[in-house]
Amino acid sequence: MKNTLIVAAILAALVIGLLIGRATTVPADSTGPADREILYWVAPMDPDYRRDRPGKSPMGMDLVPVYADGADARPGVVSIDPTLVNNLGVRTALAERGALARRVETVGYVAYDEDTLQHVHTRVEGWIEKLAATATGDPVEQGQLLFELYSPTLVNAQQEYLAALASGNEGLRSASRDRLLALGVTDREIGRLESERRASQRVRVYAGSGGVIAQLGVREGMFVTPATEVMSVAQLDKVWVVAEVFERQSAWVQAGQSATVELDYLPGVTLSGTVDYVNPELDPRTRTLKVRLRFANTGARLLPNMFARVVIDGSPIDDVVHVPREAVIRGGSSSRVVVDIGGGRFESRRVLVGIESGDRVAIRRGLREGERVVTSAQFLIDSESNIESALERMGDRQ
Prior knowledge:
alpha+beta, conserved putative lor/sdh protein from methanococcus maripaludis s2 fold, Elongation Factor Tu (Ef-tu), domain 3, 4 domains, 9-stranded antiparallel β-sheet, 20% helix, rod-shaped
C-alpha cells in the first residue's frame, strides 16, 4: 500500500511538470510581442490619455502599448460583422483639423429704424380738437397736418404777442415770440398770427418728417399734457433686423461682421448686410443678446415684426479638430463619440467638446485628426444615452 502511494505521487508530479512545461514553452514559429501591431500608447490610470509613442502619463507612470489584436479586450470596444455594419447603415466621417468658422444661426425680426422715429408731444396742456391721422399705420408726409390743439395757455401767449406787436416795443415783441416758440408754436403759425393779427383758438401741429404712424396714443377730444405721447412717426425707407443670440455665443459677435437674412415673405431671396450694433447687456427674460442689423428698404418690402432667419459669420478659430455635429453623443456629465478603429471594431470614447458652429463641433481632447467617427448609429444609444450598455447590446446581437 505504501509503495502504491509513492508511485501515485511520482506520476502526479510528472503530469504537473509536463503541464507546466507545455504552458511556459513558446514554439519556435510563434509571433513575439515585437511583431504585434501597436495602435497607440495609453496611460495605465487614464484610458483617455493617448499618445503615438512611448512616454510618461500626467501621473508620471510609463505609458503602455495597446495592440491591434488585443483591442477587443478593452472596455468600450466591440466587434461587428461587416455584413451587419452594412445592414445597420453605419456611416462614418473623418475628424478634420483646421479652421472652424464661428457661425451663428439664429432668428430675429424686422423693426423700425429708431433713428428715424419721431415722437410727437405737446408742450402745454390742452384738448385734441381735430385729429387728422386717425389710425396706426396711416402714411404721413412731411409738413402734413397731424392734429389741432386747443390750449388756453397758447391762446394767452398769442394775445400777448399781438399786444407786443401793437406796442412797437422790439424787446417785448422778441420776448413774446420766443415764448411762442418755446411752447411749440411753429414759424408757420407765428407768420399767420403776424399777418392776420388774430389769435387762433386752435393751434395746428404738423409732421416734422414723412413716414407712417407707428403708434397713436390719443383720440379726438382727449385731454393731453406734455407727458402724453400723442403719436410717433417712423420712416420705412430704412429698417432694422434685430437678431437674438444665445448667451454661449455672445462673445462671437462683433460690430462690422457680415450677415445674411432670409424671410418667408421673400422665398429664395437672401439679404446681405453687416452687424451694426451689439447691445451691451443680455435680455433678462430670454437670456439672449440683441444684435442689430441695418438694411435699406426700397419699396417698403420689409415690414416691422416680420420673422427673419439670420446667419452671422464670426471670426474663425484656427487649428482645431472638429467632427460633424451628429457624431457627438451628449450625456449628462460627458460627451462621447464612437470611433471606427478598423476591422469591424468600434470604440466608445469620451471626448471634451468645444464650440459648436453650424453642423460641426470642435473636439478639444480625446480624438485625433484622421480618426473616423460614426455619424449614423442610433442603435448605439439607448433611452438613457448609456453608450456602454448600448454597445454591449450591439455585441449581443452578433
